[in-house]
Amino acid sequence: MDSTAPQDEQDATHGSTPSSDDLPRPAAVVVLAAGQGTRMRSATPKVLHRLAGRSMLGHAMTAARELDPAHLAVVVRHERDQVAAAARALEETAVVVDQDEIPGTGRAVQCALDALDARAHAAVAARLAETGDAGSDLGDGLQGSVVVLAGDIPLLDGAALGELLAAHHADGNAVTILTTELDDATGYGRIVREQGTGDVVAIVEHADATAEQRQIREINSSVYVFDAAVLRRGLGGLAADNAQGEVYLTDVVASARAEGGTVRALLSDDPMLVEGVNDRLALATLGAELNRRILADWMRAGVTVVDPATTWVDADVELAQDVTLLPGTQLHGATRVESGATIGPDTTLTDVEVGADATVARTHGSLSVIGDGATVGPFAYLRPNTRLGERGKIGAFVETKNSEIGAGSKVPHLSYVGDATIGEQSNIGAASVTVNYDGVHKHRTVIGSHARTGADNMFVAPVTVGDGAYTAAGSIITRDVPAGALGVSRSQQKNVDGWVERRRPGSAAAEAAARASSDGAVKDGLGAQAKRELAEHNALTGNVPGDVASPQSSESA
């Protein structure tokens, strides 16, 4: 950013972005979130539309918090309750201010300042009451610098606000404005400068600008720092005598200059940093740009992003050095990925913790924890409260929910594990299901450590399989299996010979069966299976093929 002060003053006061420890603490930050946003064509208030995992209001309040203001105020009007609730969810101590029916940014800030002044008076009154000076003057109200920003500028960050605040205090300005230049400034308020000094004379809204003023490329970003006293006096004299019939905050610039104050601008060379959102197209455009910047920051920090064009990472995601993100990866919410982990391809994680050196491929997961060195996927679904221990495995086509799978344990494929606890180093056979729901209540399955469960098992909860126990394939486990035991639950198999030829005559299966019978037939007409069973019987009884069995051997049979 470049200051509009003379060059020697720029070098002296605005060389580098100050650290947060060096910044003066603003008396207040006011976020304007009262607009209707009709061009969004949405039942959702404009400032609550989201990008990079946060609402636009969330981005504005996050930037504001980085200044550590004494007060954070949010001005609301349209869809008041939704916006107010969102503001308080983001910051419990936020001062929610209602704008009245008088339109315009000037009126919005005036309502906020009135509320903040009332708080300041109340604080002074309380102190005076403690000292016995209750009749003393309460003062004018809020004192110090007041930062004002629109709630629909999602790329604006705390660093930019900090630089603006530092310039304001370094130059001793009455008002400092954040500006940028656009090739096409249609619709924006123009910055009118004083010849020679470069100070700001006025901000003229597009609708009120002359043809000459509309040629100006420098525009107002709706981000300001005011001295509280200057702001209070300026707001007191505002009127709605303009083309829009609104009370403009920008008119405070003229009043500040009229009383001898200095008004300067800090020019940003990054127009998208201060670009606002008015419709869905702008939301998508800025969302893509914000994602590009987030990925660029992570790549500079040592994260490999194989295909930035298909990778999306929210603003609150945390990535360690040497993480690799493969194409089609989406990381949302408070997801955290530790060093050496590989995520993707085609993976979506929301509020998931991934341990060091873990691998997560083609997986959808939320509110889960994946341990160090674990592997998940492909085509796994981790529902909330899944915890996979270190070096554990959740394999292909496995769904988990509210379950803890211990270190080194594996659920390799085609299974559902819900409301379960699995110990360490156990293996769950393919096509296994923890049957956790009885139609009213959920019940828990517990499988111990070093257990081996067979394929196609149903664990009807509540049920426990002990440490070191086995279960046979195809079993329905309805009772506890003690440690070291084998749990078996299956009926005896029965084969009905000739069923296909009798019940499916003329089918391909019947023809194949007939050929097999013909190839294996003996002179007495026995099929191959019957022949094998007869041979086993003869071996047991000592009969010779073709002999007539004795009555005794018949009884034995």
UniProtKB/TrEMBL annotation:
Can you say what this protein is called? Answer: Bifunctional protein GlmU
EC number(s) per UniProt? 2.7.7.23, 2.3.1.157
Region of interest: N-acetyltransferase = 302-557
Residues at which Mg(2+) binds = D152, N278
Residues given in the record as acetyl-CoA binding sites: A430, N436, Y437, A473, R490
Function per UniProt: Catalyzes the last two sequential reactions in the de novo biosynthetic pathway for UDP-N-acetylglucosamine (UDP-GlcNAc). The C-terminal domain catalyzes the transfer of acetyl group from acetyl coenzyme A to glucosamine-1-phosphate (GlcN-1-P) to produce N-acetylglucosamine-1-phosphate (GlcNAc-1-P), which is converted into UDP-GlcNAc by the transfer of uridine 5-monophosphate (from uridine 5-triphosphate), a reaction catalyzed by the N-terminal domain.
* Top-level taxon in the UniProt lineage: Bacteria
Where along the chain is composition biased (Polar residues)?
A: 1-20
Segments carrying the region annotation (Pyrophosphorylase) are 1-280
- Stretches for region Disordered: 1-25, 509-557
Where does this protein have compositionally biased stretches of type Low complexity? Answer: 509-520
Q: Report the source organism.
A: Isoptericola halotolerans
Where is UDP-N-acetyl-alpha-D-glucosamine bound in this sequence? Answer: 32-35, 46, 99, 104-105, 189, 205, 220, 278, 383, 401, 416, 427
